[in-house]
Amino acid sequence: MRSALNDKTKITDVRTVLLTGPCTNDPFLSECRKRRSAAFIEIHTDSGLVGIGETYAGYFCPELVPEVVQFFKPILMGQTVESISELWDRMYHCENFWCRVGLGAVVLAGIEAALWDLKGKITGLPVYELLGGRKHEKLECYATGGPSNYPLDRLAAKIDHYLSLGFKGLKVGVGSYSPSEGSYVASSPSEAADFEAQKLEFIRTHAGQQVKVMLDGHMGNNPVRTWQLATAMAVAKAVEPYDLFFFEEPLHYTDPWSYAELCKSTSVPIAGGECLTTSYEWRVFVERDCFDIGQPDASFTGGLGEFMKVAALLQSRGRKLATHAWGAGGSLMQNVHAAFACGNTTILEGAPDYGPLHSEIVDGSFVMEHGMVLPPQKPGLGIVLTDAIKSRYPFVPGSGEFNSVVGKVLTE
Q1: Are 125 and 378 in contact (CB under 8 A)?
Q2: Cross-strand bridge partners of residue 45
């Protein structure tokens, strides 16, 4: 039902809200990550309606987000949401030297999401309807489990926990993690292949054949233990007997050529793309058939509009998409809406046992029944950002997650 307000509602202010809170309620993920930061953009209007969006940059470099938002703010002041694509184009091209890919585009994802949320509130429609309409009655969601918690009895407990929450699929990282031993990832082809094959054998024996299992290499954003093609190929070959739904990020994103070679060499579906920004950067990978399953993130890849372009690129090559969603509640819902609007969506990523920066912001809009997510029903994205939430989770500078390297070490 259309609101009495119309598309002439004008933008009066654009603000950034930085928050810090518990990363998750998941006892297994909590072993390695205690808190998270998040960056939200609020778009205020002369009607009193406020659009809300999240940029995934807030998880990594929250301190940088407000300045970028301030840079784009004058372009939006006094404008309406009649043509969100035109507003996006103005912002994108206003600093082509630093916004074509990277941080500028990632922050644009949060700003653009707030524009879509605002338009949904004005029209009384869920955002997926504004993106071309719902393409699915429901979508399966898997539990994104982070590292493989060890020893093996701990990994078994992790699997049991996710299945008890209603998930029918789960994803774990390569290597192992324990609080006492830290992270272990083999780098030689034979050692890595043996370790992952033994782990997948254990997972299949414990979980059974009916559960969808995904393996995450975490090599797309790891500057310390990055596999080369020989290792990725050895691991992919070793895990072929275990019916993986996909093998995510087995290589770094600076090497699309090796991704293409790997994709051709194995029967295991290769997935990736969470670190790619804008359809321009995605095109480099899609046209080389680097992924069987692309993983755009609507809060990172440039926005919901760019997500739709990426989905179309993948579909033109006969490829599927599986959302990436490891931001807070806004990021989750942005990806849910985009996924429902794309016909080639095969599965959603979901944070299992999520914490308050998910639950309080989603406010009941994310509904999963028997492992299947239902289309959101509220106008806009269906997220909230109240003064009470802002007060409960004040921002802690330095709380963004980053890869530990010499001279900069992650301590929490």
Answers
A1: no
A2: 11
- H or E segment and range at residue 114: helix 103-123
DSSP class per residue in 238-280: HHGGG--SEEE--S-TT-HHHHHHHHHH-SSPEEE-TT--HHH
Determine the 3-state secondary structure of 368 from DSSP.
strand
Contacts 24+ apart (CB under 8 A), 190-193: 190/234, 192/227, 192/231, 192/234, 192/235, 193/231, 193/234, 193/235, 193/237, 193/238
* Residues 6 or more apart whose Cβ sits within 8 Å of residue 14: 41, 42, 43, 44, 69, 72, 73, 76, 77, 111
Asked whether 22 and 357 are in contact (CB, 8 A), the reply is: yes
* Phi (first) and psi of residue 189, to 5 degrees: -55, -50
- Among 267, 314, 260, 311, smallest CA distance to 289 is for 260
DSSP strands (E only) in 295-371: 320-322, 345-350, 368-369
Give tens-digit pLDDT for 139-181: 999 999 899 999 999 999 999 999 999 999 999 999 999 999 9
State both tokens at 55: 């940029």
Helical pair 103-123 and 329-340, crossing angle rounded to 10 deg: 70
